[in-house]
Amino acid sequence: MRSLKPQMQFATLAQQTETAQLGMWVFIATEVMFFGVLFFAYTVYRASYPEQFRLAGHDTQLLLGSINVAILLTSSLTMVLAINAAREQRDRMAAGLLLATAALGLAFIGIKGYEYLLDYQAQSVPRLDYVFKPGQGGPTELFWMFYFIATGVHAIHLSIGIVLVLIMAWRARRGAFSRAYHAPLEVVGLYWSFVDIVWVFLFAAIYPLGRGGT
Amino acid sequence: MSGAGRLTLRPYIVAWAVLVLLFGLSVLSAYLDIGVFHPVVNFGIAATQAAIILLVFMRLYGHPSLTWVFAGAGFFWLLFLFGLGLADYATRTGFPTQ
Fold it and tell me: How many CA atoms lie within 13 A of A93 on its CB side?
C-alpha cells in the first residue's frame, strides 16, 4: 500500500516532496497577487469614500462573518493535525480529521450561502436588487460589489479545497501516506491554510466597518 | 522530514488559541472609538494572524530558506503593487471623481 518509490524524475522522496511544496508556494504567490489586486482596489475605494464604506459595512452580517472566521481557523488546526497523523501512519485518525476539515469547510459555505440570502433580502445585491439606504450614495454599492466579488471568489477557492481534502481523506483511509511520503497532503494543507488567511483579511476588510466605534 | 515519533499537538493548539484570541480583539476593536485607527488595528491583527498561520499551520518555521523566498515572493510583489499604486492615487488631482 505505501508507495515508497519516488516518481522517475526525482532522485529521492524527500526531493519529490520539496519540489511539490515549492510548486504550491509558487501557486500561492500568484494567489497572493490575485487577491492583492482586489485588496488594492478596496484600499483605494475605502480611502476615497471612508464615510460611505462605513455606512455600507454596517449592513454586513458581523455575527455570521465571525462564526465563519472561527470555523476556518479551526479547520486549519484539524488540517495540520491530519497531516501529523498521516505522517505517523495513523490512517483512521488522519482520515477522520480530514473529514472534519471538509465538514467545517462545508459549514462555512452553508453559512456564507445563508448570509448571501440575508444580503439579498436586505436589498444589498448590486445590479440585482440593490436599494440605497438613507444617507447612502454610489460608493456604498461599490462596497457591496467588492464584497460579492471577493467573498464569491474566496468561496470558489474553498469549494475546490473541500474537494481536495475529501480526496486526501479517501487516500489517507486507504493508507496511502507515511512519514516518507505525504507530499500531496502537505500541499493541500498549504492551500487550505492560505484560503484561511484570505478570509482573515476579508473579515478585516468587510465586517468591522461602521459598528459604532467611529 | 524530521519529527518526533508521537503526535505533536501543543504548538498547534496554542497557535489556534492565540488566533481565536486575536480574532476576538478584532471584533471588540470594531466597537471602540479609535477613529482612523480602525483599519490599522483590524489589518494589523489580520497580518499577525496570517503570520501565525504561515509559521505554524503552514509550517514555514523550520523550513529551508528557499521555501521562505518562495513564500515571501508574492508578498514582496504586493509591496510594489501597493507602493507604486497608492503613490499614483495619492498624487493624482481630481480623484475621487464625484
Answer: 13
